[in-house]
Amino acid sequence: MPESQVNAYNNPRQWEIFCFATLKTQNIPLLGALYLNPIGETMVTKEELVNFFEKDFPQANFIIESIGEKSATIKKKINQKHLRPGGTVSGPVLMEIADLALYVTILNEIGLVALAVTTNLNINFLRKPSSEKDIIAKCNLIKVGRTLIIGEVSIYSEGFIEPVAHAVGTYAIPTTNKI
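Above: the chain's sequence. Below: its structure in token form.
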């Protein structure tokens, strides 16, 4: 057996991918889809993600800054309509960017699964965001399972070191409807 195959068998994620690919190529029915990718590889490109959001979620209005293994950074340009009384970015805008950051990171990890949905989003507002700066959200996935994915998002006013909010969210992954 080639050394590359032996190393894959020692890695549980690689083994699951190998089993999934083998079952799929032999037309064996699956009880649930495995949307796992090999460590170090992304399932989609930044361009594919941008195109997906422009086509399916044009109302989201955000910028994908970067994507990586189990991580993504996005930016939301802030204007007057995003502010609440008191001259600060509203809580719903911060929750929106947290959810978007999770969704971008998850789609980057598992592929374009449009029907992946938020099942939980918990956010802590830490300090007043600047009304004059854009909002940056940095997401890292904590656990990537077959049916649930958990991630955390740190949210910043652009140019500031201290986060303005921190969120933890869970997404449910459907077993079908992969695009």
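The longest helix spans residues 91-110.
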